[in-house]
Amino acid sequence: MMSPQRDSERGAALVEFALVLPLIMALTLGLITGGSAYNRKLSMINAVREGSRFAATLDGSTTWASSVQTRTVELATGDLTTSQVCVQLVKNGSVVSYGGYTYQALGSGCSSTTAPTVTVSSTDCVVKVWATRANQDKLQVIFFSSNLTLTSKSVARYEGSVTSTCNV
Question: What is the rounded CA–CA span in Å between residue 71 and residue 54?
Answer without folding.
Answer: 8
